[in-house]
Amino acid sequence: SIIMRAFILFFVALVLSSSLVAHGESPSSRAKKLLAEMTLQEKLSMVHGYQSPYAGNVASIPRLKIPALYLEDGPQGVSDGVKQVTAWPSALTVVSSWDKSAMYSLANAMASEEKRKGTNIVLAPMVNIARVPVGGRNFESFGEDPFLASRMVEQSIVGIQAMNVMATVKHFVDNNQEYNR
């Protein structure tokens, strides 16, 4: 399907260290070459996960030097029942300081802990605009001010990715209104 092909192309474009492609080429060209080397089973393995302690995962393909992906929820740090982790201040608390360096530091520290736990993709930041004051997920959002949120989200992403962990902006248009949660 088109969706599966787009996902595989996107993922393969992320695999920049493959020895099968020249590093002077565009990511799109490199992805197409890598896709041509993949079997159908390898392509299918990229669009569904397998059982693991992570929120999501994608198996590695060692012969193509494609690393495994370990995705973890993370707007508030390591979760999903993982033990011995830090209870961080909520994103909303740090956003209310208007201190971009504090947001960078928080995101960088959370990503460091995620990385030590084996995560290489963190499902954060959560960027819903807080439209309903009693929303159950407002604490992990960046508040109701789109300008302030945009500046703080930027620092969150930079802080996460400085630890060589991929940030994944989530809930761009979901979870900003709730009923009976």
Descriptive report:
It is a single chain. The protein is an alpha/beta fold and 181 residues long. It is 38% helix and 7% strand. The protein is built from six helices and four strands. A four-stranded mixed β-sheet has the order 1-2-3-4. Helix 6 links the parallel strand 3 and strand 4. The longest helix has 17 residues. The chain is elongated and about 50 Å long.
User: How many whole angstroms does the radius of gyration measure?
Assistant: 18 Å
**Secondary-structure-derived class:** alpha/beta
How many β-strand stretches?
Answer: 4
For the biggest sheet, the summary is: 4 strands, mixed
Give me the strand/helix succession: HHHEEHHEHE
Please tell me what the overall shape is. elongated
The number of helices is 6
| Strand order of the biggest β-sheet | 1-2-3-4
Helix content: 25-40%
Q: Estimate the mean pLDDT confidence.
A: 84
Compile the SSE list and pairings.
Elements lengths: L1 H13 L12 H11 L2 H6 L10 E3 L10 E5 L17 H5 L4 H17 L4 E3 L22 H16 L4 E2 L14
Parallel strand pairs: 2-3, 3-4
Antiparallel strand pairs: 1-2
Helix pairs in contact: 1-2, 5-6
